[in-house]
């Protein structure tokens, strides 16, 4: 089945059409292991590409600053209802443009500039917006950072409690971008209660696992939950904030008019579509399959002598420390990409190397699971991975073309949602 690909774009602007088509082929041919990426469904793509992009809707349903909201109001309400039902939340705001603005809205809801925030340090797996130095959140607020334990690679909950009681933050973040282990939401909630802080759970990476029952939910433990919609949740690029009735008005006001103008209605529609997909029983199977693939890949890498931060994974994500392999993250990531395995270099906890040239690699299984890859294939993926990393360590560039061709052959058997090669 071939989708009729971009006829208007091809006629009018072959330069852009050519790049979009080349990107589709690239996504089709590679083993995509970037932990924050996925493949959305054709229905999500259609909603994203719809005429809703033509419409301005500043405000909220029934309280807009522009006329003509006969369709946008019920659409946004539908997205909100689906988000509330899927996650069991009292209130949802689906307007944040992306994960970072959603997190900024949490600050705008609960903090004044200069207030203290406690978050996981970026090189330990936290996100920029959890108060890292170079982020506005680290400059405008008094950011204090907790870490993971050196011996276990897991979040140091004793340190979280110690810092919370000493620094008395107004806001505590849990969650991160490179955490391979389950987040203990009840433990964070207990600490937040003890020090009188608001607890924000950032589930950007794991939202799909939470929705599918493959990771515990923060709802009922955290005062506010933020998430992107485009990672494991497999929706369009966007974000949501879930909260209680108590904080609903303040969160809504922080998003608009506090930080944003008009919501991206085409994204809202696509979020609604993705939320309905995530509510289906087969999405729970998908969430479980993501974790099964990650565990199988982690096991296969351990067998080949790779050092995994925390020793493995509970979710979709694996963080590898390459130090014992004698190659840094950046050259390894480059070599792997040339060989058809796409991922990103990443700092590992207590990394002795610089952030722009760190010791690790981060990978995730959400996208390959969408393609239909199964755990029995993970030893093969680890074999290719190992072959390329070992070659990169020796400065040997001769394996890339052969491995890339083998991977192209494999991936050709696994359909890509929304695109297929012609002929
Ligand atoms: C991806 C991510 C974000 C930010 O999302 P963007 O859409 O890239 O702004 C925020 N927090 C966490 C934990 C993330 O993984």
SSE topology:
Blueprint: H1 7-12, H2 14-29, E1 31-32, H3 42-48, E2 59-60, E3 63-64, H4 72-87, E4 91-93, H5 99-110, E5 116-120, H6 136-140, E6 142-146, H7 157-167, E7 171-174, H8 185-195, E8 198-202, H9 207-211, E9 224-228, E10 239-243, H10 245-259, H11 265-278, H12 281-303, E11 307-308, E12 317-321, H13 329-338, E13 341-342, E14 344-346, E15 360-364, H14 366-371, H15 378-393, H16 400-411
Parallel strand pairs: 1-13, 5-6, 5-7, 7-8, 8-9
Antiparallel strand pairs: 2-3, 4-10, 9-10, 11-12, 12-15, 14-15
The structure holds pyridoxal-5'-phosphate.
Description:
The chain has about 425 residues and is of the alpha/beta class. It has 2 domains: about 45-280, Aspartate Aminotransferase, domain 2, CATH 3.40.640.10; about 280-410, Alpha-Beta Complex (Aspartate Aminotransferase, domain 1), CATH 3.90.1150. Helices cover about 45% and strands about 15% of the residues. It contains 16 helices and 15 strands. A 7-stranded mixed sheet has the order 4-10-9-8-7-5-6, sandwiched between helices. A 4-stranded antiparallel sheet has the order 11-12-15-14. Helix 8 (about 185-195) links the parallel strand 7 and strand 8 (about 200). The relative contact order is 0.16. Its EC number is 2.1.2.1. Pathway: One-carbon metabolism; tetrahydrofolate interconversion; Amino-acid biosynthesis; glycine biosynthesis; glycine from L-serine: step 1/1.
């Amino acid at each position: 089945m071939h989708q009729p690909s971009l006829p208007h774009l091809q006629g009018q602007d072959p330069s852009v059409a050519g790049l979009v088509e080349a990107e589709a082929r690239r996504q089709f041919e590679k083993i995509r292991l970037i932990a924050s990426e996925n493949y959305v469904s054709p229905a999500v793509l259609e909603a994203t590409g719809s005429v809703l992009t033509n419409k301005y809707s500043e405000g909220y349903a029934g309280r807009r600053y522009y006329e003509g909201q006969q369709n946008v109001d019920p659409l946004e309400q539908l997205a909100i209802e689906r988000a509330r039902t899927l996650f069991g939340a009292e209130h949802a705001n689906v307007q944040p443009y992306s994960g970072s603005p959603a997190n900024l809205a949490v600050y705008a809801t609960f903090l004044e500039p200069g207030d203290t925030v406690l978050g996981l340090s970026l090189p330990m797996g936290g996100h920029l917006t959890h108060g890292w130095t170079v982020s506005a959140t680290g400059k405008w607020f008094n950011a204090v950072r907790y870490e993971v334990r050196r011996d276990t690679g897991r979040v140091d909950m004793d340190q979280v409690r110690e810092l919370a009681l000493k620094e008395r933050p107004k806001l505590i973040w849990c969650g991160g971008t490179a955490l391979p282990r389950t987040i203990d939401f009840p433990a964070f909630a207990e600490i937040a209660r003890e020090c009188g802080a608001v607890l924000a759970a950032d589930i950007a990476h794991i939202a799909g696992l939470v929705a599918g029952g493959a990771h515990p939910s923060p709802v009922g433990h955290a005062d506010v939950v933020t998430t992107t919609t485009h990672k494991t949740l497999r929706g369009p690029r966007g974000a949501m904030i879930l909260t209680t009735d108590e904080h609903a008005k303040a969160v809504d006001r922080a998003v608009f008019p506090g930080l944003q103008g008009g919501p991206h209605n085409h994204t809202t529609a696509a979020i609604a579509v993705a939320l309905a997909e995530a509510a289906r029983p087969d999405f729970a199977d998908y969430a479980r399959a993501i974790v099964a693939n990650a565990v199988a890949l982690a096991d296969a890498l351990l067998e080949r002598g790779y050092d995994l931060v925390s020793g493995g994974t509970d979710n979709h994500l694996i963080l590898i420390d390459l130090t014992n392999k004698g190659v840094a993250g950046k050259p390894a990531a480059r070599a792997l990409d040339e060989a058809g395995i796409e991922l990103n270099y990443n700092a590992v906890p207590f990394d002795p190397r610089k952030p722009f040239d760190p010791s690790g690699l981060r990978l995730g299984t959400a996208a390959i699971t969408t393609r239909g890859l199964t755990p029995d294939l993970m030893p093969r993926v680890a074999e290719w991975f190992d072959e390329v990393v070992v070659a990169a360590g020796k400065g040997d560039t001769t394996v890339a073309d052969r491995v890339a061709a083998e991977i192209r052959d494999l991936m050709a058997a696994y359909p890509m949602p929304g695109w297929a090669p012609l002929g």
